[in-house]
Write a structure and sequence with these properties.
Length: 469
């Protein structure tokens, strides 16, 4: 044999003619190729002599079939290359969390990233891995292919990242190959620190559900607004955090300075500081909450809180609320004041839309006054409407407003989170007359209608006179 082609070609070498390689491979094989065995059996039947079928002769006789097999192999290689090109590259594989069959990994906060190694050479290579040195990173080999990768094949790996603290980690995965130089895969990962946002609804969405007008409160002071003395500040909150691996705990400034934990707050879920109460006291991720203040006296009140996360990050939060007494300047009426007499018939014919309503703080409302039935008599007529404020806390009214009170009642109050121990379950509210609105109207008929009425009355008189005669 004159050709000795190595089984593994050298680097950058091409192997166009595979016949010498086939001769070297099939020469010592037993059994021989199927076609060679058939030819050998035919010759044995003819002359009962064992004739060695030359492999060179078999290849030359079936050279056309070999060429067809070669073309088919090249076509399969092209299709496989196209399929590899359509798949996502190694650096664009999406990260994945633990699957449903391994819930314990999801609870522990393990994040996984897949890595695919593709052998683009024309020879088979063996791989050896040096895993990352950090204990937070673990390497997993997928599949049962082993550490040997043939030409055009892939090997999939999976890197597990289990964070333990808020710290960036830079490491590398070293891949050694049997042919060529080693490949270093850099690894950069970090655990996102818990970013807590306190979302508060604005004045326009205060009476409705959460909407686009909700405000993300990033300051350290949360203003609950100003309310009448005896009323309750109730502001819904949303403690929003994008990650679920961090827990938050709300504690008072006094407990923080004295290094104590309020067991009652943990058991009930409500932190009470003076006249303020806030919930929740302990949560993970995102949770809806409520801030409440019931001031026993008029004035500005504050409460200092601390929000401590499980990653040892501290954030201060101050609650501010103002309790004020009632004043006539809180509600203003814009109308034309005139000293005129009133008419009972005109007052009964007036309709006000809306008859009852709520006005949000620092806002206004328009009231329409209409007279569908002005009456049968013509002329100027006048009426007076009263503006009555209801559900005004009795303790917010000073003695100078005693004459304006028209009724007083006691209502049941909703339970205050954390403040029910004070015994406040009922509230006295009053209805007061805030102001008067004078309205003037003048019904009249047009000239044509008045002439028709005058003629009809004159004709009726004539007919009545004729009947009497």
């Amino acid at each position: 044999m004159t050709h000795y082609v190595p089984l593994i070609p050298e680097e950058k070498a091409t192997c166009n003619d595979v016949r010498p390689l086939l001769r070297e491979v099939f020469r010592g094989l037993h059994p021989q190729p199927v076609l060679a065995e058939q030819l050998q059996c035919e010759q044995n039947l003819n002359d009962n002599k064992v004739v060695n079928v030359q492999v060179d002769q078999w290849i030359q006789q079936h050279e056309l079939e070999s060429e067809e097999m070669k073309n088919r192999e090249e076509q399969l290689q092209r299709e496989y290359a196209k399929r590899l090109a359509l798949e996502s590259p190694t650096d664009e594989l999406p990260s994945e969390v633990a699957s449903c069959d391994s819930e314990w990994k999801e609870r522990l906060g393990i994040i996984r990233k897949r890595l695919r190694l593709v052998n683009i050479s024309k020879c088979e290579v063996r791989l050896a891995f040096q895993p990352p040195s950090r204990s937070e990173l673990q390497l997993e080999l997928l599949g049962n292919r082993g550490m040997t990768v043939t030409s055009g094949s892939t090997l999939k790996l999976r890197v597990h990242f289990k964070p333990r603290d808020v710290r960036a980690i830079n490491d590398e995965l070293l891949v050694r190959v049997s042919l060529g130089s080693a490949v270093s895969v850099p690894i950069t990962c970090y655990m996102q620190p818990p970013m807590l946002d306190v979302i508060v609804p604005s004045a326009h969405t205060l009476f409705s559900a959460w909407g686009p007008a909700a405000v993300v409160h990033s300051a350290d002071a949360l203003d609950l607004g100003a309310r009448l003395l005896g009323d309750v500040h109730r502001v819904p909150l949303q403690m929003h955090c994008n990650v679920d691996h961090a827990c938050f705990y709300v504690m008072s400034e006094e407990a923080w300075c004295s290094f104590t934990v309020d067991e009652v707050a943990i058991r009930t879920g409500v932190v009470v500081v003076g006249a303020f109460s806030i919930r929740p006291a302990l949560w993970c991720g995102t949770r809806d909450g409520l801030a409440v203040c019931r001031a026993p006296s008029a004035g500005l009140r504050t409460a200092a809180l601390r929000i401590l996360s499980s990653t040892a990050i501290l954030r201060p939060l101050n609650l501010v609320a103002d309790a004020i007494t009632f004043s006539s300047e809180h509600v203003s009426l814009q109308n034309q004041q005139r000293s005129i007499d009133t008419d009972t018939e005109a007052t009964n014919a007036i309709r006000v839309e809306p008859l009852r309503g709520d006005v949000a703080p620092r806002s206004s409302i328009a009231v329409h006054v209409c007279v569908p039935q002005a009456g049968a008599r013509c002329g100027t007529r006048r009426a007076v409407l009263m503006l009555i404020l209801t559900n005004v806390p009795r303790e917010s009214l000073s003695p100078e407003y005693e004459d304006m009170i028209i009724s007083t009642e006691t209502i049941e109050e909703d339970e205050l989170p954390g403040l029910s121990r004070t015994g406040v379950g009922k509230r006295r509210v009053a209805s007061i007359v805030h102001g008067h609105v004078r309205i003037g109207l003048e019904p009249h008929r047009d000239a044509a209608a008045a002439e028709l009425v005058r003629r009809a009355v004159a004709r009726r008189r004539v007919l009545c006179t004729a009947a009497a005669l």
